[in-house]
TrEMBL record:
Gene3D superfamilies the UniProt entry points to: Glycogen Phosphorylase B
Similarity comment text for this entry: Belongs to the UDP-glycosyltransferase family.
Annotated organism of origin: Trifolium pratense
TM stretches of this protein: none
SUPFAM superfamilies tied to this protein: UDP-Glycosyltransferase/glycogen phosphorylase
Protein known as: UDP-glycosyltransferase 89B1-like protein
Superkingdom assignment: Eukaryota
Entry's Gene Ontology molecular function annotations: UDP-glucosyltransferase activity
Amino acid sequence: MSIPQTHLIAYPFPTSGHIIPLIDLTKNLITRNINVTVLLTPSNQHLLPPNYSPLLQTLVLPSPQFPNPNQNRLIATITFMHQHHYPIILQWARVHHLPPSAIISDFFLGWTHLLARDLDVPRLVFSPSGAFALSISFSLWRDLPQNDNPDDPNSVVSFPNLPNSPFYPWW
C-alpha cells in the first residue's frame, strides 16, 4: 500500500459548533486516504477522537487570551489567532516532513488566505452553516439589495441570483 502524499490542514474556529462539523469533514477526507492535521487549542482537544486514524494528526495551538474584558470576544479571538497562531503554523508547515497541500479554514479565519499564500497552497473556506444561509450571506456582500420604497410597510427583499429563493419582508 502506498503512503498517501496529500496533506491538508483543517483549521476550525475554536468553538464546538465550528470544530465538530469540520471534524466530520476530516473523517470523510481520511476515508479517501488523505492525511489531515487538525489545528486545535488545548480546551478543544477532547472533541477529536483519540487514535482515530494514523492519517489524522493534531497541532495544538495556544488558547486565545482576553486581557481586556471590554473587548469584543469574537474580534479578540480572531486577532489573537492571527497574531499568535500564524507564525507557529507557518514554521511548523515549512519543516513538516509532508508539507500541506491545502488549508481548509473556518470562514471566520479570513486571514488564513495570507498563510496559504505564504505556503503557496490553496485555501478552502469552510462554513459550518447551511448552504442556503451561506448563499444569502454571499449574495448580500456581492449584491446588497436596495429598498426602493422605504415608506412601504409591505416591501420585500429577494435574492434573484439564488435559485428558488423566497421573498422576505424588508423590515
